[in-house]
């Protein structure tokens, strides 16, 4: 991405650099330091994506262990505690370390390109968000190596099972790791969301009105709002749980007047919007891909955007449908059932509009389109079973059975993961500048589609004949064996499919033999496709002036008055912000704070509990110092003067 | 390699065979724990609404999916040139969009009405005075008036069933009259559990610090099918249920020949051995249920417990007394039954002809062990209120299952269980201290078949 450019320096910049204790890496830094200090949204997005793919492999291995244990009745691949740890870690990993950060990777990489911005609003905050995410992932997976191993409490961590009173290993630290990991991941998500909202509201190119935003950017905005409204609930819940476990408070301890129901309400008022946080980005991706491969604009753009917003809004009003069997009484149960049914309407609208988009088009079946079609059909099945669960009497039988497992995997794999893979096949050429093999891509899709359905379709039936969730084994004589074996075979096929896909993505970064992509390989419609692949570090050599909704398409096929124009470059050229160490150092401080808090308690030889806050205080000081230095350091920066055709 | 190739030649036959097998297996829906085979009013209602939703969604899937397929076929780009054409760039059609929204709303209303009715049904036992709705539900007034109440307490990892109307407590096997409504009050002593008997009703959670309610009523007609009550609902109180279950059914049999036996399961994750927290519900005819209650009441009545022999009393024929028997160990008592009426002072020692041993030696030894190995600390036998930590073992010999419904209650499983319960159900409280404490009272049972057999004789003798 090196560019011929003139470095613009303020008169005293050289002196400043010399006087600093912690020198700021310069413009041309390379190697490891480049990646550790980068504030470029594209590199951060890439690291988000690669880390999430790594955790996808980890979570996938956990899933395959779970499936192996369920191959037959009374299997002994895992003990019951190990199994419980596996499904806890699988759930937490897949939700917080895979699907959310994969979405964040796309937000980071694609969204600024789609609105004609040169970076996000707060580039260093973006880097902090990335390092917090990595830190959270590390803390969660460190739990394997300490007392009690990983948490065995489920990803939902229902009180009072998380209480130390019910710990099944003496001094079990698993739930503590889980709490601190989720807190730090929460910081990462909140930082990223504030950043994206500010970016989308403030940094759109001239002429890019809100109703000209690509749908993916709209979904980024909605999801970011969902995150900043939903995460405080789980933050509070986790703080209370941390106090219960560490300092003996009684928020959830029913023997002391606490209320386990409180945890469930706080968890699900976060947890249900979280479901939409996971699925809306995929819907955004699919809404970009289908118009491209049908060569038609999105059918009912306004309605799709509006229904996304409605889904987001109503997502906060249906949380108790996860709690139909907890005895909330007739009135609350009925109200939440009706609201949950209502949310099916805006979801259905999206599906109708995607079909409407294809109607009358010229449909090409390239890999991204196959994944998008897979998304629509699989998400439809997941949505239909979701409607079933909104009906309380049906839910009374389905709750906590394999039917529910089937339902949310249809939404989260068939929906979210297929959508994200669709995004990878669609946008990776923009990232790498190389096209991926269509043959391999279609093979991956076939494996994933077959394996996925083979795994999860039988689970509907298994749930109906009474297999409960979260059980490490089942008794003989229930008729569960055959279908579990089919599911296990399917899971391995799915696993192979995903593995080949991930290898293909990584290969496309390094394999120089692949066909170059050029600016717009799919003949796509949105602004990012007017840029070269890979995108230059400054994104846009000249800020575009937007004239229409699908700007790249309009430039090629639209009338003259719809063609975008370019703002002339002023004397300062393109202002590029400088790299910084402080986001990384602040994140390390937070990581140290969490680890320090995890280990601040010891039992001295006389059996007395000793609390030693030295390490948490040091680490906290590092984090605060990082923020102060960050503020004092200022944005810095240098200026580039790219030629007009260099983009 | 060749064999693999050969296998592939047979592939079509193999696939057809596999499909037939699957179809055959799928057509069976009456598995032990199947919600597709409802045997009670509440479960039937839930099944009916489920099937309604299945038909609605199948219709929608075919309609929308068919539409999708049509569009994909009709508008596919057939040639490379066609893929470069620019079709008309239409942006939407508000009439179509509004129409589809209205249609979806109408379809949801079709599901919403029975949903609301179902919510009321599963939360409230119908009013016995409301003849109209009783008739609609096909219920008789007596079925509601005679409803029994069971207080269910969940513990890690077993169930306590208390019958407040009768003052009795049992565990892991819920005996109930098939003709009457059963009100279930749900409580827990530790974490959240969930009470689920799929064939009778959907689940309800046991929340700490709160009492939840559910109810169910079995459908006697459906349980009996074409057979009579004695075949489908053998009596529990005289052991014929246990005999029938054991005779007709290997534990591994997939399909349950005894209609009155229902399988239940804890459905909320509750810790290490959550998977093992199952239970059974046994439907009984009214008479059998009454007899069962009587036997239980007598067994758990503190006034009817065997007392020590009193030299001042005379005993009628058939009385039970406990009397010191040094053969069993110092200070140990044995139970004697009088064969004929005795006058004061005629203790079993002085007048052996008037008394017989009430139980075998093994039984008496087992009883001693039950106390000396500290089993009584956690398990109550007969008298309630003592040893509430573990399942109540009153009339244990009548139970069909062991370890909260996980195993068959016979000598073989019981011996395995007593020797090392942790191997079967990791995380249960009856852990023998393996690897941590060799002084644990159960530690040496593993190598002591004699003691184990004595305990088994005592436990299975509770009938």
Tell me what the structure shows:
With about 650 residues, chain A is mostly helical. Chain A has a single domain, classed as Cytochrome c oxidase-like, subunit I domain (Cytochrome C Oxidase, Chain A), CATH 1.20.210.10. A two-stranded antiparallel sheet of chain A has the order 1-2. Chain A has a two-stranded antiparallel ribbon with strand order 3-6. In chain A, a hairpin with a 5-residue loop joins strand 4 and strand 5. Chain B contains 14 helices and 16 strands. Chain B folds into two domains: about 250 residues, Immunoglobulin-like (Sandwich), CATH 2.60.40.420; about 130 residues, no CATH class. In chain B, the strands form four sheets. A five-stranded mixed beta sheet of chain B has the order 3-2-1-5-8. Chain B has a five-stranded mixed beta sheet with strand order 4-10-9-6-7. In chain B, strands 11-12-13-14 form a four-stranded mixed beta sheet, with no helix packed on it. Chain B is elongated. The mean pLDDT of chain B is about 85. The longest helix of chain B is centred in the N-terminal third of the chain and has 34 residues. In chain B, helix 11 crosses helix 14 and helix 12 crosses helix 14. Chain B starts with a helix and ends with a helix. By secondary structure, chain B is of the alpha+beta class. The chains are: A mainly alpha (about 650), B alpha+beta (about 475). Chains A and B meet through helix 4, helix 8, helix 9, helix 10 and helix 11 of A and helix 2, helix 3, helix 4, strand 7 and strand 9 of B.
């Amino acid at each position: 991405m090196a560019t011929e450019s003139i470095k613009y320096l303020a008169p005293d910049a050289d002196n400043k650099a010399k006087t600093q204790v912690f020198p700021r890496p310069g413009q041309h830094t390379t190697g490891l330091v480049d990646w550790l200090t980068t504030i470029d949204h594209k590199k951060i997005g890439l690291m988000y994506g690669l880390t999430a793919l790594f955790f996808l492999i980890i979570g996938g291995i956990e899933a395959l262990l779970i499936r192996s244990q369920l191959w037959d009745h009374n299997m002994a691949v895992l003990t019951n505690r190990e199994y419980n740890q596996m499904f806890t870690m699988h759930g937490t990993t897949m939700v917080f370390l895979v699907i959310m950060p994969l979405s964040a990777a796309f937000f980071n990489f694609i969204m600024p390109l789609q609105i004609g911005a040169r970076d996000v609003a707060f580039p260093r905050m973006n880097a902090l968000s990335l390092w917090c995410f990595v830190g959270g992932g590390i803390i969660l997976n460190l739990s394997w190596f300490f007392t009690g191993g990983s948490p065995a409490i489920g990803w939902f961590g229902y009180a009072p099972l998380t209480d130390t009173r019910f710990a099944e290993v003496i001094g079990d630290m698993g739930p503590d790791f889980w709490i601190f990991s989720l807190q730090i991941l929460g910081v990462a998500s909140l930082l990223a969301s504030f950043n994206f909202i500010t970016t989308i509201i403030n940094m759109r190119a001239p002429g890019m009105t809100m109703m000209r935003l690509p749908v993916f950017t709209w979904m980024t905005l909605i999801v970011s709002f969902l995150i900043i409204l939903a995460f405080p609930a789980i933050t509070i819940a986790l703080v209370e749980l941390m106090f219960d476990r560490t300092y003996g408070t009684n928020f959830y301890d029913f023997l002391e007047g606490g209320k386990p129901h409180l945890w469930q309400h706080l968890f699900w008022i976060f947890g249900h919007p979280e479901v939409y946080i996971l699925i809306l980005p995929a819907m955004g991706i699919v809404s970009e891909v289908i118009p491209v491969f049908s060569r038609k604009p999105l059918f009912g753009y306004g309605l799709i955007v509006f229904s996304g917003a409605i889904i987001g809004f109503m997502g906060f009003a249906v949380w108790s449908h996860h709690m139909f069997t907890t005895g909330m009484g007739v009135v609350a149960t009925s109200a939440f059932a009706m609201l949950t049914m209502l949310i099916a309407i805006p979801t259905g609208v999206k599906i109708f509009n995607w079909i409407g988009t294809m109607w009358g088009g010229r449909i090409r079946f390239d890999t991204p389109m196959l994944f998008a079609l897979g998304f629509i059909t699989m998400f439809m099945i997941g949505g239909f079973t979701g409607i079933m669960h909104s009906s309380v009497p049906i839910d009374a039988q389905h709750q906590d059975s394999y039917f529910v497992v089937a339902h949310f995997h249809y939404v989260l794999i068939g929906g979210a993961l297929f959508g994200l893979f669709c995004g990878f096949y669609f946008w990776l050429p923009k990232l790498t500048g190389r096209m991926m093999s269509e043959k391999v891509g279609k093979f991956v899709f076939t494996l994933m589609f077959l394996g996925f359905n083979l795994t999860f379709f039988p689970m509907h039936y298994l749930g109906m004949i009474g297999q409960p969730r979260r059980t490490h084994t089942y008794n003989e004589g229930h008729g569960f064996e055959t279908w579990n074996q089919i599911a296990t075979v399917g899971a391995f096929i799915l696993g192979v499919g995903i593995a080949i896909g991930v290898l293909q993505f990584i290969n496309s970064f390094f394999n120089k033999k692949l066909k170059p992509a050029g600016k717009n390989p799919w003949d796509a419609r949105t602004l990012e496709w007017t840029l070269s692949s890979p995108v230059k570090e400054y994104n846009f050599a000249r800020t575009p002036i937007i004239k229409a909704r699908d700007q790249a398409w309009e430039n090629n096929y639209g009338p003259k008055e719809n063609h975008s124009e370019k703002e002339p470059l002023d004397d300062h050229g393109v202002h590029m912000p400088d790299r910084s160490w402080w986001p990384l150092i602040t994140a390390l401080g937070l990581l140290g704070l969490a680890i320090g808090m995890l280990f601040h308690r010891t039992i001295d030889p006389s059996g007395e509990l000793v609390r030693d806050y030295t390490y948490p205080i040091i680490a906290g000081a590092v984090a605060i110092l990082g923020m102060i230095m960050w503020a004092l350091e200022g944005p810095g920066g240098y200026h580039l003067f790219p030629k007009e055709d260099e983009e | 390699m060749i064999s693999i190739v050969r296998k592939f030649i047979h592939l079509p036959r193999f696939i057809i065979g596999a499909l037939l097998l699957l179809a055959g297996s799928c057509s069976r829906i009456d598995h032990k724990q199947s919600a597709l085979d409802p045997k009670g009013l509440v479960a039937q209602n839930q099944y009916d609404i489920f099937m309604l939703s299945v038909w609605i969604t199948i219709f929608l899937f075919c309609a929308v999916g068919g539409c999708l397929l049509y569009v994909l076929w009709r508008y596919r780009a057939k040639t490379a040139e066609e893929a470069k054409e620019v079709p008309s760039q239409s942006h939407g059609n508000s009439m179509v969009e509004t129409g589809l929204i209205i249609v979806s709303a109408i379809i949801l209303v079709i599901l919403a009405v029975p949903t609301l009715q179902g919510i009321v049904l599963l939360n409230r036992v119908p009013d016995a005075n409301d003849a109209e709705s009783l008739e609609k539900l096909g219920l008789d007034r007596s079925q509601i008036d005679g409803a029994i109440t069971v207080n269910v307490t969940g513990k890690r990892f077993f169930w306590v069933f208390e019958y407040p109307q009768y003052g009795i407590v049992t565990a892991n096997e819920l005996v109930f009259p098939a003709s009457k409504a059963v009100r279930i009050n749900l409580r827990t002593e530790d974490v959240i559990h969930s009470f689920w008997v799929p064939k009778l009703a959907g689940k309800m959670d046991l929340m700490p610090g709160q009492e939840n309610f559910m109810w169910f009523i079995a459908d006697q007609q459906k349980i009996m099918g074409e057979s009579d009550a004695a075949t489908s609902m053998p009596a529990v109180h005289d052991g014929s249920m246990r005999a029938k279950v054991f005779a007709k059914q290997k534990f591994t049999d997939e399909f349950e020949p005894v209609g009155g036996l229902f399988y239940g399961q804890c459905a909320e994750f509750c810790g290490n051995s959550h998977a093992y927290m199952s239970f059974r519900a046994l439907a009984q005819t009214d008479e059998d249920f009454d007899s069962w209650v009587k036997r239980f009441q007598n067994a758990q009545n503190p006034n009817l417990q065997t007392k020590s022999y009193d030299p001042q009393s005379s005993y009628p024929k058939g009385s039970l007394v406990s009397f010191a028997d040094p053969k069993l160990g110092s200070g140990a008592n044995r139970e004697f039954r009088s064969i004929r009426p005795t006058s004061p002072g005629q203790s079993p020692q002085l007048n052996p002809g008037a008394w017989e041993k009430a139980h075998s030696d093994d039984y008496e030894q087992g009883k001693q062990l039950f106390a000396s190995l500290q089993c009584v600390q956690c398990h109550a036998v007969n008298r309630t209120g003592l040893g509430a930590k573990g399942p109540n073992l009153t009339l244990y010999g009548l139970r069909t299952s062991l370890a909260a419904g996980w195993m068959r209650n016979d000598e073989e499983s019981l011996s395995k269980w007593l020797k090392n319960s942790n191997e079967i159900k990791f995380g249960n409280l009856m852990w023998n201290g393996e690897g941590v404490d060799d002084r644990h009272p159960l530690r040496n049972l593993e190598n002591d078949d004699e003691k184990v057999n004595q305990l088994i004789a005592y436990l299975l003798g509770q009938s």
